[in-house]
Write a structure and sequence with these properties.
single chain; Amino acid/polyamine transporter I; mainly alpha
Length: 473
């Protein structure tokens, strides 16, 4: 069974998916008039509160929750794995996916906010499932069967991905990190994770966003600070590391004595794949929480949301990549310890080796950072699953889903094997497909709205379109 799942996983995340996602990023960049140039303005907007906006949580709360779900262990171990598998050049391609992925994040959030709805309790609901439902509705009010299929497919695949990626995988990562540092039984760590997660997610979206607003800035700044310290220690070779990253991105040059360096295609494939995992642009996850934000119009929240891709990939992943490459150059002995026989799990070893170079505090920063990243990812993805099961089965399904979510977190902590990792990986790819199709079909509409709100200076304009109320199931 695992062999079959691995084959499916390799297929869905193969070159076709990489080309589709990266091609979408580039196409939407040009379609939106290179919306990336509005990034400085978007960053300033993300820290302000908009009292005139319609929604459940603040702009920054929505961004912080999306970042909580995005900046996970993949921002550290995922980068290291990309470097080991694709060489230093993978860091460059990871960065490129972040730069162009900003436009995709903008478009998918714009569509999600424009087509969001309310339930009878007044809570905002959004995401690709509601985009499919409303954007393609006929004049008589009926949703075509193909649009309904796109909506259900996204919600179903996303639910599978949330339970795997958001719960089991992150709990497993937390347990491995903690158990390797403190002699505590895995079942005890699992119970602790269940308690910490339950007290937050059972409180609803406002509780989740409040915790993420406080946790995400602290953990990101602490981790970035650790990276800057390592770069200061590696200062004599940082320039060489950056040059090597660019050189390996466009040539088949081997690095570190030939232990790493598999050619341009490997650097491109692993760099793009890990970059896409890091920023989630195109997956359709961040638009779910963005739809709950208090915003005047779709473009306002879309601009704020696109900064998440900038922070997660263009900044955090790039910092991690330069840290790892410079550390390997400055410490050739790492070759013998890690690069001689690189495996899937060597990424964690490489990250640990880099941070251990900071006297006294290096390893604690890495451990606490990865635990905080994993915990915040569990919180963020729990909200995504909450909204997807609400669409599929109604509000009565929320509590059973939350119970299942924390139960799977416990199973992940005590070890559920490789099956859950692979299933969630497949779920991520499959949820991206209906989301990408929807935003490509709506790219013209978003482009017109962007010209009005962003380029014509109407960002303060309040969207007066009514937000429909959906029937509770």
């Amino acid at each position: 069974m695992l062999e079959i799942l691995n084959s499916i996983d390799a297929f869905v995340w193969g070159p076709a998916m990489i080309v589709l996602l990266l091609g979408t990023h580039v196409f939407l960049t040009f379609k939106t008039g290179f919306i990336q140039r509005k990034l400085p303005q978007a960053i300033r907007m993300s820290f302000r509160k908009d009292p005139q906006g319609k929604g459940d949580i603040s702009n920054f709360g929505a961004l912080a929750t999306a970042l909580a779900a995005t900046i996970g262990t993949g921002s550290i171990v995922g980068v290291a794995t990309a470097v080991l598998a694709g060489g230093p050049g993978a860091v460059f391609w990871m960065w490129i996916t972040g730069v162009f992925g900003i436009a995709t994040k903008y478009v998918e959030v714009y569509a999600s906010v424009k087509y969001r709805v309310r339930d009878h309790a007044g809570n905002m609901l959004g995401g690709a499932m509601y985009v499919w439902e409303r954007a393609f509705k006929k004049e008589d009010g009926r949703t075509p069967w193909w649009a309904k299929l796109g909506a259900v497919a996204f919600a179903a695949f996303a639910t599978v991905a949330t339970i795997g990626t958001g719960s089991a995988v992150q709990a497993s990562a937390m347990t491995g990190i903690i158990a390797s540092s403190v002699p505590v039984p895995t079942w005890a760590i699992g119970i602790g994770i269940v308690v910490l997660v339950s007290v937050v997610i059972f409180g609803g979206v406002r509780t989740i966003s409040n915790v993420c607003e406080k946790l995400v800035p602290v953990m990101a700044v602490a981790y970035a600070g650790g990276c800057l310290v390592i770069l200061a220690l590696n200062a004599p070779v940082v320039g060489e590391a950056v040059a090597l990253i660019f050189q390996c991105a466009f040539t088949g040059k081997a690095a570190f004595g030939g232990a790493v360096g598999s050619g341009i295609m490997m650097a491109l494939q692993f760099g793009c794949a890990r970059g896409l995992f890091s920023n989630e642009s195109g997956l359709g996850s961040a638009p779910i929480i963005a739809a709950a934000a208090k915003t005047r119009n779709p473009a306002e929240q879309a601009l704020i949301a696109m900064t998440g891709t900038f922070w997660s990939t263009v900044v955090i992943c790039a910092l991690t990549g330069i840290v790892l490459v410079s550390t390997m150059i400055a410490n050739p002995g790492i070759q013998a310890d890690i690069l001689a026989n690189p495996t899937l799990f060597s990424g964690a070893e490489l990250a640990s080796a880099a941070f251990s170079k900071i006297p006294y505090i290096g390893t604690p920063i890495l451990v606490l950072g990865m635990v905080a990243f994993s915990y915040s990812t569990i919180l963020g993805w729990s909200y995504y699953g909450n909204r997807c099961v609400t669409y599929l089965f109604g509000r009565r399904a929320i509590r059973p889903y939350q119970v299942l979510y924390v139960a799977v977190a416990f199973l992940g902590a005590i070890g559920v094997g490789d099956v859950m990792w692979t299933v969630s990986d497949i779920g991520n790819a499959l949820m991206a497909l209906p989301n990408i199709v929807a935003i490509l079909l709506l790219s013209g509409l978003v482009a017109r709205g962007t010209r009005h709100y962003v380029y014509d200076g109407c960002l303060d304009e309040v969207d007066e379109d009514p937000i429909p109320v959906v029937e509770s199931k």
